[in-house]
Amino acid sequence: MLKKLYWEPDLPPVKEGAYVFGFQVEGARWEAAVGQLEESKPKKQFSVVPVVNCRAAPVVTDAKEDKSIYLCPVYKTEARGATYVFTAQLKTKLPPQKWILAGVALLLDVEGVSDAFAPGKEVPLA
């Protein structure tokens, strides 16, 4: 993950995958300073995730479970359900079960929130 909230022409080129911006975390917050999931702040349902380099990777089913990674579902909208897209791997210092019970997910489109982070708008990460 990068430290920018939106795509810019000066981002370094990627060898694999594509840059994606506009992700929102629901049920937790993304702590940009340490690059991992944290408890959400009071009365803040969504948290912005910086630009992400998304790329496909094979799923290893026989590997040992990594307790520092939360396998986070990504949905197109808040409706979830049939809007499932893929599973993202997010770093966490807390057990992944905490985020599962909290229903934490990444959303691609949050009405009224995502528009504030359009290209060209300066919005602090904090």
Name the features.
126 residues; mainly beta; Hypothetical upf0131 protein ytfp; two-stranded antiparallel sheet
Q: Total number of β-strand segments? A: 9
Query: What does the main sheet amount to?
Result: 5 strands, mixed
- Relative strand content: 25-35%
Looking at CATH, the homologous superfamily is Dynein motor C sequence, barrel region
- CATH third-level topology: Hypothetical upf0131 protein ytfp
- Computed structural class: mainly beta
Concise structural overview:
The protein is 6% helix and 32% strand. With 126 residues, the protein is mainly β. The strands form three sheets. The protein has a five-stranded mixed beta sheet, with helices on one face. Strands 1-6 form a two-stranded antiparallel sheet.
Overall description:
This protein has one helix spanning 96-102; strands spanning 18-20, 24-26, 29-31, 36-38, 46-48, 52-54, 69-77, 84-91, 105-109. The chain has 126 residues and is mostly beta strands. It has one domain: Roll (Hypothetical upf0131 protein ytfp), CATH 3.10.490.20. The chain has a five-stranded mixed sheet, covered by helices on one side. β3 and β4 (36-38) form a beta hairpin. The radius of gyration is 14 Å and the shape is globular. The chain starts with 17 loop residues before the first strand and ends in a 17-residue tail after the last strand.
